[in-house]
Write the structure tokens for this entry.
Amino acid sequence: MELGEESNQPQIHTQKGGNESHIESERVRKMLMLRQVQISSFKLFQSPKQPGCCSSRSVTLPRTRLYRNRSGLRAMGGNGLEKLYLGMDFGTSGARFTVIDEQGVIRAEGKREYPPFMREESMDWVSSWKATLFSLLEDIPITLPSLPFLYNQSCPDALPEVKSIAPANHTVCSGSSTLCKLVSWWNLKLPNRESAVLLHQADWLLWLLHGRLGVSDYNNALKVGYDPESESYPSWLISQPYSQLLPVVQAPGTSIGNLKDSIRRQFGFPDDCIVCTGTTDSIAAFLAARATEPGKAVTSLGSTLAIKLLSTKRVDDARYGVYSHRLDDKWLVGGASNTGGAILRQLFSDEQLERLSREINPTVASPLDYYPLKSSGERFPIADPNLAPRLLPRPNSDVEYLHGILESIARIEGKGYKLLKEMGATEAEEVLTAGGGAKNDKWIKIRERVLGLPVSKAVHTEASYGASLLALKGAKQKRGL
């Protein structure tokens, strides 16, 4: 029995009287309840029947619905573009719905309590369930949120194709590169894919402010294949059918246009407020440190260890995850290790880290040799996806153990700067420190001894400060200063 088809519902007629009539009505009511509860899950559009469902039925929605996918707003229904699947659970006190895609990713969900429909002195469950069903259908959003590819999301399915067109060891030859994400999406062969536009997170957010679709910066565009040295997309990329989706690329801190009038009026910004191209978070953090001369480096000690070195020479090697971002007429060479603060948090509490660090003598080298990782796998400065964590032997003293781990991470940092030099980058002369690890003065002194370089805290460590410097740069360029 499908809900909503009034003509198909059984009509109850009885000539019996008294208690017998009441018993018969109650029996029929329970039968209706049982049959209604069975309608607990059904599909939208064509799909195989899902195992475990009480019932599976095709449903024609009362109006065309729209959903937003990665390439824009699309209509759902008929010969829809993406098949979505709706499940409903009618429980004791209310009902829920969940909409998923073919990969099982939740695209929408919601719930409703049963409305208290009464018939005489008892709950009219049949009417309540029916009303709840159509309320849930009404609650399914007209637009479903887009599902962006996240920065650390890998698309290994596209990697062989990308490697077949890109130069060996190119920055894009990684499953998490933007180009792999683009190729993976393109191969889904969604209708009207040619009309889509590739936007990085910063591009999309800035578009909301200035209204010009398809503008990026050469830092964000690096991993889609843009060549900041020639200031163009390479021929091997332009020849691909999806190249028309690529954004126009400008230098970071370039004025794109004025802030939208509606936003300017709403928040009280001046008439001449401009919006400039952005950059990546790691580069913004480097800019915040005000390291402007070749040989200046910034080590970010967060959950992982990331190093950035300002160099006069460009260095790229996908095997080690090493790549260079352009900074005006120089290159910011960087790499990231899987070691870092995450393993410290796994072994010690914040209170222990602070208390034990006070007892460490940073002038004395630790004899312990570890490779602190949360799980197997390392890329920089050692390219070994199977490299196992090494955190033993553990001494009886927690102070000695922490000392050994901090010094081991410092040695990995030193190997990283040494590798960049061997690859041809400018030799590091001074290291500024950002991230949570910059708060540990004993660790800074350990690193200074191990690296054999001056090491200090960066005055400014927030990436938003670096982004504000780009806004300053763009405003000065616009004024011709």
Summary: Confidence is low (pLDDT under 50) at residues 1-17, 27-80. The chain has three domains: 6-139, 156-276, 291-458. Residues 422 and 436 are 29 Å apart (CA to CA).
